[in-house]
Specification:
Blueprint: E1 24-29, H1 33-49, E2 57-62, H2 68-79, E3 83-91, H3 97-115, E4 120-127, H4 130-135, E5 137-139, E6 142-143, H5 144-163
Parallel strand pairs: 1-2, 1-3, 3-4
Antiparallel strand pairs: 5-6
This protein binds ligand DLZ.
């Protein structure tokens, strides 16, 4: 069970479904690029490790996390993926911008999950500072891009099993 693990970066690969017939979209925010590039690398490596072909991973960048919702919708409509992985990093600043961007993208991704017949995975870091973000994109708390990819594979497998019910 995922709940018994500290984080999914330490998942057992044998427990992850084979993903060689799956197709993914990844939408990644350019804001805080040092962090989001590491999240992207983690996600792509994990998808590849579980059998996803390079040609079946479609990556699109957007300027900031607020634009992730729109980008994710476009990639879902144009590429017909089995799931879309959303990657971003929102770091608390001195103003309330942080709250509005977090709320906006969280609400947006929730809406996409309700409107489309595929899962949209929330791989967005929302941290108090840069160090907390670095700790979660390949640091002491694993790589949340890796975890988002594992979650995406699991959700696609769940959807495919539901299709046969
Ligand atoms: C404006 C802004 C700020 C202050 N901080 C972040 C952030 O920490 N992470 C992020 O992904 N994006 C940030 N942005 C940009 C917004 O997401 C968005 O791109 C702009 O408000 C334009 O719509």
């Amino acid at each position: 069970m995922a709940s018994s693990l500290k984080n999914l970066s330490s998942h057992d690969p044998a427990q992850i479904p084979d993903a060689s017939d799956m197709k993914f979209g990844i939408i990644v925010s350019e804001w805080n690029e040092e962090v989001t590039a590491a999240l992207l690398e983690g996600a792509v490596n994990t998808l590849s490790k579980h059998g996803v072909l390079k040609d079946n991973i479609h990556i699109m960048a957007v300027p900031g996390s607020f634009e992730i919702t729109f980008g994710a919708r476009i990639i879902a409509e144009k590429q017909n993926p089995d799931a879309v992985i959303c990657l971003g990093c929102i770091i608390q600043g001195e103003t309330r911008h942080f709250d509005f961007i977090c709320q906006g993208v969280t609400h947006g991704i929730t809406e996409l999950n309700l409107d489309f017949d595929i899962p949209f995975i929330y791989g967005i870091l929302t941290t108090d500072n840069q160090q907390q973000a670095l700790d979660r994109c390949g640091g002491k708390h694993g790589n949340k891009g890796d975890e988002a990819a594992v979650t995406a594979i699991k959700m696609v497998a769940l959807k495919k099993s539901g299709d046969h019910m």
